[in-house]
Amino acid sequence: MAKNSLSKRHEAALPAAAGGLVESEASPLDTDAGRAGRIGLWALGMGLGGFLLWAAFAPLDEGVAAPGMVAIDTKRKAVQHLTGGIVKEVLVREGQSVKEGQVVVKLDEAVAKANFEATRQRYLSLRAAQARLQAEQAGGRAIQFHPDLQASAQDPLIQAQMATQEQLMAARRSALNADLQAFNEGVQGQEGLIQGYQGMLESRKSQLALLSEELRNTRGLVAEGYAPRNRQFELERAVAESNTSLAELQGNTIRARRTIGELRQKAISRQQEYRKEVETQMAEVSREVQGEAEKYRALQNDLQRIDIKAPVSGQVVGLAVQSAGGVIQSGQKLMDIVPSDEPLLLEARVQPH
Fold first, then answer.
1. Alpha-carbon gap, residue 261 to 251, rounded angstroms
2. Are 281 and 128 contacting, i.e. CB atoms less than 8 angstroms apart?
3. Domains and CATH numbers, the chain
4. I need a surface site. Which of 82, 105, 200, 236 has the fewest CB within 10 A?
5. Pairwise CA distance, residues 136 & 126, whole Å
6. DSSP string of 217-282?
7. Which residues of 220-256 are buried (b: 16+ CB within 10 A; e: fewer)?
8. Pairing of the two strands 333-339 and 97-98
9. For the chain, what is the mean pLDDT?
10. Are the CB atoms for 344 and 72 separated by under 8 Å?
11. Confidence of residue 77 (pLDDT cuts 50, 70, 90)
């Protein structure tokens, strides 16, 4: 009995020992998992506690309500005109989508075109006169017209102005050449007279030499009584007349040379007056051309601005002009265009505490 009880106890102890061995082998894993779980719970609890403490004691401003609106980043684009005018046609409506560069309003071009054409005619006329004066100043045979004139060469009025300047240059040059030719012919005439006087002087000198020799011989004959004294007197008068004639011819030669000098000086003065006149006109015309060129460019830009175009692509809002015939002032806003594909901003107005 005692042996049976001991054996049973021994058998019962073996499973228990085996179970203990199994439990001792599994306990480290269970211990690690539990520890990690406890650490996670502690961390979560501390974070939640810290957040509650921060929310309780942190100095935060209270939330307030404020009105706001959503707007585009670059605001609206105003459509205006620099000088204003009379509306001829409105090509858009409120809320209509437009493309950049699209014509939205057309103005009446009658006044702008009339002002531009008047200034254009005066400007190109001055340009033609300036080109003619430059050719005269340089002594050129042909006029080199300004590019603005060449660009408008098909205009009959501009063609007439260019032809007028060419004719004027030819007439002025012909008048100058005629005056210079007259002076030159006068010089040639005086030179011919001088040559004639020189020939007469040589002839009279030869004649005087013969008369003087005859007079010497006659005086000897008169002294010896072989010739009458009246013959001596006649020869003396002839010698005196020859000397007088020589003096007159020499005087005429001097006067002819002086006349040649005067004619040449007149030719030089005529050329100087011509150049001075050209330079004076050139200074005046160049000054006027500069002023008219600025007006011409400005009116040309005004004429190009008759068609008012959209500055950006977007939607038309705030259309202030609805029909044709209205008058817009300089710088008046005609409409706004809300640009498309622009970033949006939230604008809010918060009252200070």
1. 15
2. no
3. 69-101+311-340 (2.40.50), 102-310 (1.10.287)
4. 82
5. 15
6. HHHHHHHHTSS-HHHHHHHHHHHHHHHHHHHHHHHHHHHHHHHHHHHHHHHHHHHHHHHHHHHHHH
7. eebeeeebeeeebeebeebbeebeebbeebeebbeeb
8. unpaired
9. 82
10. yes
11. confident
